Amino acid sequence: MTPQGRTRGRVVGLLTTLTVLVTVAVGFAPAASAQGYVPISGSGSTWSFNALDQWRKNVQQFGIRINFSGTGSTDGRNQFKANQVDFAVSEIPYGLTDGGVKDEPPKDGNFAYMPIVAGGTSLMYNLNIGGKRVTNLRLSGDTVTKMFTRKITMWNDPAIAADNPALNLPARQILPVVRSDGSGSTAQFTSYLADQHAAVWDEFCAKAGRKTPCGFTSSYPAYAGIVGQVGSIGVANYVRQAQSDGAITYVEYSYAKNAGFPVAKLLNKSGYYIAPTAQAVAVGLLQAQIDPNDLTQKLQGVYNSTDSRTYPMSSYSYMILPTAVKGNFNELKGKTLSDFAYYFLCEGQQQAERLGFSPLPINLVTAGLKQVERIPGSTKKPTDISKCNNPTFSTNGSNTLAETAPRPADCDKVGSTVQCDAAGKSVTKKGGTTKTTGAAKPGETAPGAAEAAGTDPGAAGATGGDTAAEGSADGEGDAGTDGGSLSAIPVSVDLPQDDGTLLVVVAAVLMVVLVAGPPLAARLMRGKGGS
Amino acid sequence: MTQLTSAPGPVAVAEAPRRRVSLPGGIDRVFRTVLRGAGLTVLALMATVGVFLLIRGLGAFSSAGFGFVTTQAWQPDSGNFGIAAVLVGTLLIASVALVVAFPLATGMALYISEYAPRRVRGFFTSLIDLMAAVPSVVYGLFGSTLLQWKGTDIPKWLSIQFGWIPFLDVPEADPDNPLSPNGVYMTSTFWAGLVVGFMIMPFICSVMRESFTQAPQGEREGAFALGSTRWGMIRSVVLPFGRSGMIGGTMLGLGRALGETIAVAMIISPVFVIQPHILGSGANSVSALIAQQWGSASPFGLGALMAAGLALFMLTLVVNFAASAVIARSRSGQGSDA
């Protein structure tokens, strides 16, 4: 290339770069600052992270940049207190006493709570019977408490069997998985345990070296046999692994939904086992006491709600907003935050159910909108909430989602001999019926025979549980001795899949070796000969 | 004056290095000041970290007293806390890491310096450097979401075959029961140590490789001339020459292993008792404790974490100084100050 040509090339290159830069600047800069938005940051709850993250992505199109890191509610509150973030998200407010230490609110007092979404703290589990995943587990609060305090350590415990008359529970160890960081999920879960099953909970706390009465705590006591993991995604990820058969954890329903794992139905006060659906949560939260001044929640009413459609571990999640300019927070940020809040209080709520949460009812949305106006620099957008399309809104002020919630099926009632399957149809115990009566001990034959006839009174918790354990242990351990076991079939179907992957890998390796091997070997030999 | 600096005769040069008797002016002075400043900054930085930890942790030290070293629990807000469990956990994880990393690094360094053809040598050297450049959070992800789940059979086999060695026993496990959960073999000291071992391997390896390649050519050839095989030459020349490089590199790796945070925090399930069963679920380390708790700690709890951090800081400092002392004393490391 001649020098002239080179110069021309350089000029062309420079021009191209400039054009690209200008296009980028013109194309993107106005979008980012069209409304005068500035990036804001928040941190806190992983319980409501999935909802907030979706909303955050949705508002990017308006040029609103929200950085939210799910580091746990406790961390969120601490960072907000230290003015490190513009807002925090937490399940519990400031000022509560946890383990003898009061969580002091920010000294200046310039903050407000705003409910952002409702949801159910659900019990996600990984349990297989004979190679088939259980999807219709039911648990009473008492059983849950004992499972998470190591009073019940086996899945075939009579208490679990009594909750699940249709399941042949295996003699597998329960692996409770809890949060090892300071967490609002733990706070919600333990306040349910402490309120409803104080005796068992306090006994556990004392054994774990805490002061009693224990009350709720944000950091679950470390105890032998209980696995701690960081963050909601951490516990959900632990439970979803194939190796974690027998694990159970407490996590917001959306995480179980995303992982494609079932959650246990929890027994409510009126004797029905209820799943944490958006509607069951909405029904439960009708009984939540909301403090009219700061909107914080008291959940005893939810735990004790006598509505048969209630999911007892329902709660709201809150955003903690600044109400004065302080630290790094200025009016520009306030404007951005207020528009984000207007978005998710209104339109954002439509997505709550799909994400695994439950939308806010009308009274909390209106109260929340009032809180948004207190943010310095708030756009004070007049919001016509009838256009929000929130599924809870009605013309007469009642909660439509709760009104229209279906009554629980009869197979979800406590004490019946049947149990709903995943599709809601009632099923009875199957495994026990295939067991030949001749092979078992006299004590075991009786319930087995009763189940075969479909007349198990349902009270035979202890003996029924034992039978179930034997049945499925045989099914997995040595299927050969138990000719009638249905459970061996899915296991054998699974195996060829694994073999297939292995074969593909072996084939690929072989091919690489065949192609690359001979020349490499030749070169090596030549190299040796040369030296 | 200028004459003096360039005047010394050739005889004087042969033995002792030349000394400049006059101060150079201008730019040299500036340069020296800058360099001295850099050195002092590092010193000041370390001192500040130590003093900061000491001041912030003083409250915790005085409230816990001697119990700070002997208590296993970590509940600073109830006044019941100490570093016995986490410090032992840190040492256990670091030991597992060294057991993994040392043979791997030695083998790799010997292969690169002695056996590998030139082209492969360059490739492996950059591969090892790449391994050192991978962020620890990636190792943590690798360990916590893949390795420990797919590799459960390794600790299982170890505990069944060598369970009679006390620390390889897993008391909660019941290998005869096919329904017993595999969770007891996960989130353990073993997995954390294994992943940390992978992380420190490249550092140990490069120090070792450096010292192996410096083994004098004359002695190598002498060994060959006396009829030695290549392995014999390595044993009699390279390994003795590089021994202190090996020790020093290992100590440097140990220093890193003691302080490794995020990968450990991602893998372990924290427990606050001394967990001597390295294959069993539950482990802890000082740095993982700090990473997991500082966000949700009360002001006093933060002080207690600072105190724990100071303990780790001292331990790492001692290990690193010991490492540099060993390297400096060695034959291969005489020239270097590492």
How would you describe this structure to a colleague?
Chain A is α/β, with parallel strands linked by helices and 531 residues long. In chain A, 43% of the residues lie in helices and 14% in strands. In chain A, β7 and β8 form a beta hairpin. The longest helix of chain A is centred in the last third of the chain and has 43 residues. About 15% of the residues of chain A have low confidence. Chain B has 338 residues and is mainly α. Chain B has a domain of 206 residues: MetI-like (MetI-like fold), CATH 1.10.3720. Chain B is 69% helix and 1% strand. Chain B is built from 14 helices and 2 strands; from the N terminus they run ααααββαααααααααα. Chain B has a two-stranded antiparallel sheet with strand order 1-2. In chain B, a hairpin with a 4-residue loop joins β1 and β2. The two termini of chain B are 36 Å apart. About 2% of the residues of chain B have low confidence. Chains A and B meet through α3, β11, α8 and α18 of A and loops of B.
